[in-house]
C-alpha cells in the first residue's frame, strides 16, 4: 500500500481495472463523491456516510452485472467489486414509473428499477440506459417485424435498434411498438380516417374498434372494454368523440354503455347521458389539467384512453 494514496473506484470501473489496496477510497453515492479509509464496508457504513438509515432507505451497488442489493450488514470489499456507484433512496422510490413522472412534470431519478410503458403494458428495467432493441425485447418484439416510436415532452420520434435512450434524462412518456406488416384493419361505418399511429394502435388491441358517423358527429367505439373491479359491470362499450380537426383539436371525456356505477353505492360526480348509435351512453366529464394539456405532437387515442382509464381507477379511491 502506497502511503496517502487515494483510489477512485469510479475511475477504476470506467478503465476496467481492479482497485489497488490504498490509504483512502473515493466512490459515488448517486452523483456525489464520498470517501473512506476502510477497505471493507458494510451497508450501515454507507448509511452513516450518506445520512440515511436502513429503516427508511434501500441500497443498491451498481456493478457490471447489474444492481446488487446491499443489506445493513452486507460486507463490501472496495478492492474486489468493480463498483460503478451506490444508489441510496427511500423505499418508496425503489421503482420509478416513467409515465407518472411525465404526467407530474417530474424528472426521473437514478434508482433501482424503472417502469416503462410499451403500447398498453408496463415493463420493468433495472438499466437507466437502454437501446431501442432492448426496449422492444422487453415487449417480446424485435426490429425485424416492428419499429419503435418514443413519445417525450419534445414530441415523438422513431428510435433505431442501436440508439441509446437515457430514461433519467429524456422526459419519456411511453413507447409504441408498431408492426411493419399490413392488415385489413378495424371495422368502419360511414368511413372517416384517423392518423396512422391511431390505426396501428387500434389494430394492436384485442377490442373490436368501430368508427361511426352520425350527421356531422364522429365516434370511435371500443367494444367490450374491460372495466376495473369494484364497478357494477366487468365490460362495457367505450366511446370517444372525434372532433373536427383532430388531432390538432384534442380528445375530451369518455362515454360508456351500459352505464357504470360503484359497487359500494357511492355516487359518481359529473355524469350525464348521450345518445350514440341509438343507445344511451353515460358521459364521464373528465378533462386534462393545466399541467397536462393536449399536445398533438404527443397525445393520441391511446394516450387519451389511458388517461380516462386512470380516471376510472382514481374514482374508486374517493370515499
Strand order of the largest sheet: 17-18-19-20-21-23-22
| Number of strand segments | 23
How many H/I helical runs? 6
CA-atom Rg in angstroms? 25 Å
Helix share, percent: 10-25%
- What is the makeup of the main sheet? 7 strands, mixed
| Domain module tally | 3
| Low-pLDDT segments, ≥5 res | none
Class based on secondary structure composition and strand pairing:
alpha+beta
- Spatial gap, N to C terminus: 65 Å
Q: What portion of the residues fall into strands of 2 or more residues?
A: 35-45%
Give an account of the 3D structure:
This protein is an alpha+beta fold and about 325 residues long. The chain has three domains: about 5-90, Ubiquitin-like (UB roll) (Roll), CATH 3.10.20; about 95-180, Ubiquitin-like (UB roll) (Roll); about 185-315. Helix content is about 15%, strand content about 35%. Strands 17-18-19-20-21-23-22 form a seven-stranded mixed β-sheet, with no helix packed on it. A three-stranded mixed β-sheet has the order 1-2-3. The termini are far apart. The mean pLDDT is about 90.
